[in-house]
Amino acid sequence: MKLWLLRHGEAEPKARTDAERNLTGKGRVEVERAATYLQEQPLQAILASPYQRAQQTAEIIRQALGFAGPVETVPWLTPETDPADALLYLDRRTEQDILLVTHQPFVGVFGGWLIGGHRNAPLPMATASLAELDGDYLAAGLMRLIALRHAEQSLPSSEQSST
Question: What does each of the 163 residues of the chain score in pLDDT, given as a tens digit?
Fold first, then answer.
């Protein structure tokens, strides 16, 4: 099984609610760059948080890849989701190649837990960071980290933020 974990792109700092925050222009560029790493991957499903910035991120990815299926909105991909709960939901899926579009702290903790078997070593997931995990079984400590790519690393120096 392959699992890709993508944190949403940079979002505006404020909105009426956290769930309503939109991607910034920079965030859209970050996501477009992250999409290049998913080219030619055999994705079978794109699952996204219901939060606006994750929905926008997933749609940019879907369009960039020419993914024929819909983005499936799932309520368990929010920032505070318990990784064990997410694993229960994913165990019900039949697909073997899934992209999750979600948030910190969940994405870092979930990735670290799947790789190391514990929650105290989260993956460092900046905006639009993409982790590729692989394993025979989707279970804590049984997945391997194949790649971890950060959007900022691929931005020309004139586009990188100073903070």
Answer: 999 999 999 999 999 999 999 999 999 999 999 999 999 999 999 999 999 999 999 999 999 999 999 999 999 999 999 999 999 999 999 999 999 999 999 999 999 999 999 999 999 999 999 999 999 999 999 999 999 999 875 444 333 333 3
Name residues whose C-beta falls within 8 Å of residue 102's C-beta, 6 or more positions apart in sequence: 5, 6, 7, 8, 48, 49, 54, 77, 78, 79, 81, 110
* Pairing status of strand 71-73 against strand 45-48: parallel
| Nearest Cα residue to 38 out of 78, 6, 77, 86 | 6
Q: What's the pTM?
A: 0.92
Dist CA 32 CA 12 (whole Å): 17
158 Cα distance to chain centroid: 25
- Closest by CA position to 74, among listed 60, 97, 55, 61: 55
Find how far residue 104's CA is from the centre of its chain: 9
